[in-house]
Amino acid sequence: MTKNRNIIIAVLLIAILLISVAYSALATQLSINGTAEIISEWNVKITSVTAQDVSEGCSAGKPKFTDTTVTLEAELTKPGDYITYLVMVENTGTLDAVLENITLTPDEDGSPAIIYTNTEPEPLLKAGQTTCFLVKVAFDEETTEMPSIKSKTITGVVKYVQK
C-alpha cells in the first residue's frame, strides 16, 4: 500500500509539474499601446480694420493690425469730432469661440477730452465665421477749453475663449 501511495504521489507531482509547464507555455501577456492626437486648431484673429465714419476735417490715418493687435491713429480737430473704426475678427480655427470681454484701458496721462467707446460683437463666433465690432474715438463735445494734453493712448483687449 505504501508503494502504491508513493507511486500515486509521484504521478500527481509529475502531473502538477506538467500542468504548470503547459500553463506557462500557453499564457500570453497582452500589451496595449495607443496614441492620441488633438486635431482641432484654435485660431481667432483680426482680419481687417477700416475707418468707417470720419468727421469732416479729421484724419484717420492708416490703421495697422496683426492677427492679435490693432493700432489706430486719429487726428481730431474740434469738440464733437469723431472717427469710427470697423474691426473684423475671424475664427479660422476648428473650435467655436465665445467672447469673454472687450476691455479698453486708456493711458492715465492722456487727454480727458478724448473718449474711446466700442460696440460688442456677437458673443458666439463659430469656426469659419467672421464677426465685427466698432471702436469710436471722439473729441468730447462738452469740452469748453482746449486741453493742455492733446492725445490719449488706449490699450484694448478682445478676449475669446473656447466654447
Write a short abstract of this structure:
With 163 residues, the chain is α+β, with helices and mostly antiparallel strands. The chain is 15% helix and 37% strand.
Account of the 3D structure:
The protein has one helix spanning 2-26, and strands spanning 44-54, 64-65, 70-71, 82-91, 97-106, 114-118, 124-125, 130-139, 154-162. It has 1 helix and 9 strands, in the order H-E-E-E-E-E-E-E-E-E. The strands form 3 sheets. It has a 4-stranded antiparallel β-sheet, with no helix packed on it. Strands 7-5-9 form a 3-stranded antiparallel β-sheet, with no helix packed on it. It starts with a helix and ends with a strand. With 163 residues, it is of the alpha+beta class. It has one domain (44-162): Immunoglobulin-like (Sandwich). 15% of the residues lie in helices and 37% in strands. Strand 2 and strand 3 (70-71) form a beta hairpin. The radius of gyration is 37 Å and the shape is rod-shaped.
